Amino acid sequence: xxxxxxxxxxxxxxxxxxxxxxxxxxxxxxxxxxxxxxxxxxxxxxxxxxxxxxxxxxxxxxxxxxxxxxxxxxxxxxxxxxxxxxxxxxxxxxxxxxxxxxxxxxxxxxxxxxxxxxxxxxxxxxxxxxxxxxxxxxxxxxxxxxxxxxxxxxxxxxxxxxxxxxxxxxxxxxxxxxxxxxxxxxxxxxxxxxxxxxxxxxxxxxxxxxxxxxxxxxxxxxxxxxxxxxxxxxxxxxxxxxxxxxxxxxxxxxxxxxxxxxxxxxxxxxxxxxxxxxxxxxxxxxxxxxxxxxxxxxxxxxxxxxxxxxxxxxxxxxxxxxxxxxxxxxxxxxxxxxxxxxxxxxxxxxxxxxxxxxxxxxxxxxxxxxxxxxxxxxxxxxxxxxxxxxxxxxxxxxxxxxxxxxxxxxxxxxxxxxxxxxxxxxxxxxxxxxxxxxxxxxxxxxxxxxxxxxxxxxxxxxxxxxxx
Length: 468
What we know:
This protein is α/β, with parallel strands linked by helices. The chain has helices spanning 5-39, 51-70, 82-107, 114-144, 160-166, 170-173, 189-199, 213-226, 265-284, 286-299, 335-342, 361-368, 376-382, 395-399, 419-422, 431-443, 447-462; strands spanning 150-156, 176-183, 203-207, 229-232, 243-249, 252-258, 306-312, 318-324, 386-388, 415-417. The protein has a 6-stranded mixed sheet with strand order 2-1-3-4-6-5. It has a two-stranded antiparallel sheet with strand order 7-8. The chain has a two-stranded parallel ribbon with strand order 9-10. α14 links the parallel β9 and β10. The mean pLDDT is 84.
């Protein structure tokens, strides 16, 4: 079986978690032993783990996750029963005990603290089993939640698409929502464009044994221009934007053409950092939230303090974005009138106006300090947005995109700040230039680039640079 990159990363993350839990369990075992010595009047032996227990940790902590992987402990998390997990873990512990016993005999390490060792093993068993139960429960709920499933299109000819799906393990397709079986022989590329747009498709898998090479090439071009991953079980296809890498679906090798950041530890760390940082910022800025709510309610008491609007998330999937309300209650109804009377300072489908008459005075102050953006931190915690990424646009503005290449900015999570926010929104009046900055961010993404944009955003906010 060939493991996909995402499965390998998931396994490594679970192994690291289990290793830390095992170390923590033996530390608890040592603390309990020392408490027992105090209670029986024997006194505390030392402040840290004894050297007689350290050699056990050097073996147990790294070896246990490796043995568990060999026993299939980290596979089939959505379908595996709890009893199977317990059996696998018991077998792993027996193997570890055998290894430790043999080493103790050959190296004459007979002074291992038995109470600390026994408690450590028991606590390790309980912690890893609880972690496994939480993980399996989370994956099962994810498989049942239609809102979190990945929208996938299978493209090919005739019966081969259904045969391909039937050959895949249910565990693999549990988090997929098959949006369409796209027949390359009977449909044209415009049909595929409409499907990708309407269904918020994350990737297209091409099963191309009998498909015409030119048709596949045109379909791949549609995918890469929108930032949708193209997974191809065919020979190499030259592209202009997408980077070719190899992955697998089940045991079938696939050539993947990806024009977005590749799944990596760095990308996973970005998601972890986003949620932790957003939570801390919410806590630190609570006084500003209170001031904003009170000020809005005083000056505009006829409507809620918060404003929500459906925006286009990753791959265009709608989500509800939150802000502090800075406009009159019927602002959206007045949009067409404002456009007619005051025009639009931004070329293209996006509406921007320096002195929008719908904004009340306290709302103007909130905007200048970017306080109105703070509720979007809730979207970051929820996972709909990131701290850094292309700004999310209303659905009607996305629908008005005139260029297919504009949709590639939807191929990553939208963010609270971006290159445009951090420095340049004062001078940029062209939507094409705005998109160009977003695509440059996507093509050159790194954690350092995110930190760089965040650092440049701080003075932009403090000195009210370009606030609109």
